[in-house]
Amino acid sequence: MVMWCDAQVGRVDEVEEASQLTMLDKPPGDGGTAFNPVFDEIAEMGLVPDALVYLTDGYGRFPGAAPSYPVIWGTTALEPEKYPFGDVVAIDLSE
Questions:
Q1: Is 89 helix (H, G, I), strand (E, B) or coil?
Q2: What is the reported pTM?
């Protein structure tokens, strides 16, 4: 499952395998970022994921507390210590 979010969840795409990612439409939204809507949507859907991988530049409002499942932040900008919880993986966009 892929959730597209800026200040709200704009769309949810069901994905069965990685090759389908290249076929997804342009992401909706364009503006400020709030991370809470994704965590809220997961809770509202009654999901308990094995992990959440959140791809972001890291600029936005973070939830006040970590969820019960692992979070991996794939970041293009912020240093790992700026994230309040989860594991942080740097994404190099220079290539």
A1: strand
A2: 0.79
